[in-house]
Amino acid sequence: ILEIIIFCILLYFYKRKAVKHIVVLLMMVALLASLTVIAVKAVASMITLSAKGKMQLTYPVFYIMVVLMATSCVFQVKFLNQAVHLYEATAVVPINFVFFTTSAIISGVIFYQEFQNAALLSMFMFLFGCLLSFLGVFVIARNKKGEHLQIPFIDCGHIPGQKLTSEIQPDSHSSHYGTLNNEDDSAKSQT
């Protein structure tokens, strides 16, 4: 329920207040991802129990979880695409990894009580491994320098000394086919 409240608050800021900050978008993605993790684990458990002979596919909870799994995946991808369009992938991917992993761990711990019978050392080692993973992502993402994409074509409107013609594609039977027109040649062709 706490996840749903936080998601609604973030969605309010995203839609009504037009706050499109990377943390807001990726927090919504992470919250949806935690719902996806819960739903996937529930569906997988119910299918496993059904295969063992305890039919679970007749219960409406199974179909509710399938619908929840599909819709949360769709909206998760929608918000993630929005974040990638607004920000560079070198910023989105590491933050998304950390938020997704954290939300999946917390939702599994709370909803499925995964650490209930675990030893203290096992919990510490698991959390320490997650921390090391996050630290590695931070180090890798921090050292990336912005790469400038080169434009693979020449914009004819920006060539100094050349006049832009009104033709999109030159006549292939012309003697000037495949060459740039000089100002003198374009004046001759207009007369």
Structure description:
- It is found in: Membrane.
- Keywords: Membrane, Transmembrane, Transmembrane helix.
- With 191 residues, this protein is mainly alpha-helical.
- 65% of the residues lie in helices and 0% in strands.
- Helix 1 (2-15) packs antiparallel against helix 2.
- The model has no long low-confidence stretch (mean pLDDT 81).
Mean pLDDT: 81
Q: Report Rg.
A: 28 Å
DSSP summary, beta strand count: 0
Number of DSSP helices?
6
Give the structural class.
mainly alpha
Q: Tell me what portion of residues adopts beta-strand conformation.
A: under 5%
| Amino- and carboxy-terminal Cα gap | 76 Å
Q: How is this structure best summarized?
A:
The protein has 191 residues and is mainly alpha-helical. The protein is built from 6 helices and no strands.
Task: Give descriptors for this structure.
single chain, 191 residues, mainly alpha, extended
Q: How is the secondary structure organized here?
A:
Elements: H1 2-15, H2 22-51, H3 60-86, H4 89-111, H5 120-142, H6 183-190
Helix pairs in contact: 1-2, 2-3, 2-4, 4-5
